Amino acid sequence: MPDNYFQPRELECPCCGRNNFSPGLLGILNSMRRTFNRPLILNSACRCRNYDLKLNLKKLRKDFERRKMRNGLIYRIAVEEESLKIRASSHIKGLAADIRVSSPSEMDEVLREVYQYVAPVIQRVGINFEKGFVHIDLDTEKPQCICWGY
Q: 3-state DSSP call for residue 136?
């Protein structure tokens, strides 16, 4: 069995190729891959600040369009708040990965693995049912023992 199931391009930032991915997190992902005995697809791993900003602003614009908020001041304040979050992004630090899941049963399988086998190490888990991914990260500068939904 290979030690590493992931190609460098799977871990790199899509816009610039930056790759500062945590060897510890890569080890966890490889262990999960061995357990599942099938590929794990990553939606996102490393990101540069520009790419992270682009993704977050895109999400922010959608939120505003959905709420029909057209007030420029509100938008400017929200962009500033979002930029503060980006500075602390675990993806920028190379400490996070978003694992694609294609079905509720696959979501259950990934979450079981995270909580049964890697919970002592992975203390931060995000779940996005709408877009179909599980976020895991090793960022100790953020609150620990936490699970959230998008």
A: strand
Largest CA distance in the chain: 56
Average pLDDT over residues 59-76: 58
pTM of the complete model: 0.83
CA distance 114 to 28: 9
Q: Are residues 8 and 70 in the same domain?
A: no
Proportion of the chain above pLDDT 90, given as a percent: 55
SS (H, E, C) 91-110: CCCCCEEEEECCCHHHHHHH
User: 109 Cβ partners below 8 Å, 6+ apart?
Assistant: 36
Confidence of residue 118 (pLDDT cuts 50, 70, 90): confident
Three-state SS for 19?
A: coil
Domain span holding position 66: 48-88
H or E stretch covering 81: helix 72-87
121 and 150 together in one domain: yes
